[in-house]
Design brief:
The protein is mostly beta strands and 109 residues long. The chain has one domain: Structural Genomics Hypothetical 15.5 Kd Protein In mrcA-pckA Intergenic Region, Chain A (Roll). Helix content is 15%, strand content 42%. The longest helix is centred in the N-terminal third of the chain and has 12 residues.
Length: 109
């Protein structure tokens, strides 16, 4: 089985707050959202979205102020392809907890 080693870093913290995790590249973004919630100690009580190449990914809602691409069928391997690729994850739009997710390396077993 193949794995991705990812680094999830919470922006704006000193000292830096981050987690390194191994996941399978086939995980879809909604499930990855729950993984981030667990590893970062969040409570899943606020809105969230992924920001990839300037586009917003999440659960579209009629009240969205900008286009949100439905992320239900998008896999991690679709958006993180090469080592050093990065995407953003935003949690709690009021407080704006922004995370940078970096593909550090592939691990083959």
């Amino acid at each position: 089985m193949n794995y991705y080693q990812l680094k999830v870093t919470l922006n704006g913290t000193k000292p830096p707050i981050y987690r390194r995790i191994l996941i399978i590249p086939e995980i879809k973004l909604p499930k990855f959202h729950y993984i981030i919630q667990i590893i970062m100690g969040w409570t899943d009580s606020h809105l969230h979205q992924f920001i990839i190449d300037g586009q917003f990914y999440g659960e579209p809602h009629p009240d969205d102020w900008t286009e949100v691409i439905n992320y239900n069928n998008i896999k991690i391997k679709d958006v993180l392809v090469y080592p050093k690729d990065k995407i953003k994850y935003e949690y709690d739009f009021g407080d704006g907890w922004e995370h940078v997710i970096t593909l550090e390396k592939f691990i083959e077993s």
